[in-house]
């Protein structure tokens, strides 16, 4: 095999999943909606921190937003395996539109209070508990197994392109128009996803009939399925570690920007854009490797790189260098999560995929309250520098413990 042929076998067109018309509709709608989502993701923590001036109260919003996933994700998986994912998403996206519109009106009228943000965050958490596993499990129906990893990577690219554009735009909008505009734009943007969902035409999914009629039995059946497949079990464990303690940026970055770097809204937004830029490049890199499938090194080695990047970020006090360090963190974080997502879906059968992805949602997003609480506690009682370092150190410690516990299995 020539060098050129070998390179072609390893690398693929990073946009190959877009050849599927259904995925194209879905992806374009998501690109539009995610920009609005990231504008709110920037505006909401800034608003909350401005109202409370407390890192801990800021972290409480994340805790309440993701607690429903912790409590209800496994039940959501049973629903996803039984119902049409398209219909589920039409419901969840419509509900998200209404919730964000209410929050926008409260901010615009000047009646917003801290407890309003807590209530709306909880409502969005309940909706996202069903929305996330549905979106994850839908991709394979849009692109098939062959292009699944590329489709997942493209979704990450869309998410992180929005993470670049959304925060930068949000910083400018917050500074010159006002916070309410960010929430209104996000509410309107959900209409783009709804339009794309109506355009999608799916064939009925081929799923084997379920023998269990009891919800608890079906949850237990799904967990047993994961437990007996090492490729699923160890990916889930590592995802739990990284998903809990790495992505606490909404808690740490606004505090770090304000207290350490002495930045305003625009400076905070640009820092988050650096994070998004690195994440986008990480997704692009994974998309070009999608032809050869997920790599074990990324699952088992990259968490250490993420941890070191978090520690380094906490001890930089130069604005540009902080942005570059966040970009590096984002690059490796998306490499890891995209590979973990692909590994779980490619190793799951159709009848269990919804439940497997509900566990993915549980350990990746449902554990966020613990991570937010952990990061917020260190930032509150020490400072944001220590918050970053504490998150990085615990990832290293837990990964080393996992290695020692399963070394005899030689799965690495």
Automatic annotation (TrEMBL):
UniProtKB keywords: Cell membrane, Membrane, Transmembrane, Transmembrane helix, Transport
UniProt keyword annotation of Transmembrane present: yes
Domain Major facilitator superfamily (MFS) profile: 17-410
Molecular function terms from GO: transmembrane transporter activity
Transmembrane segments: 25-43, 55-76, 88-108, 114-131, 152-170, 176-200, 232-256, 268-290, 297-316, 322-344, 356-374, 386-406
Signal peptide: none
Primary location group: membrane
Pfam family, one: MFS_3
Keyword Cell membrane appears in the UniProt entry: yes
GO cellular component, one term: plasma membrane
Compartmental location: Cell membrane
InterPro entries per the UniProt record, alphabetical: MFS_dom, MFS_trans_sf, TM_effector
Membrane topology term: Multi-pass membrane protein
PANTHER family per record: INTEGRAL MEMBRANE EFFLUX PROTEIN-RELATED, STAPHYLOFERRIN A TRANSPORTER
Protein's recorded name: Predicted arabinose efflux permease, MFS family
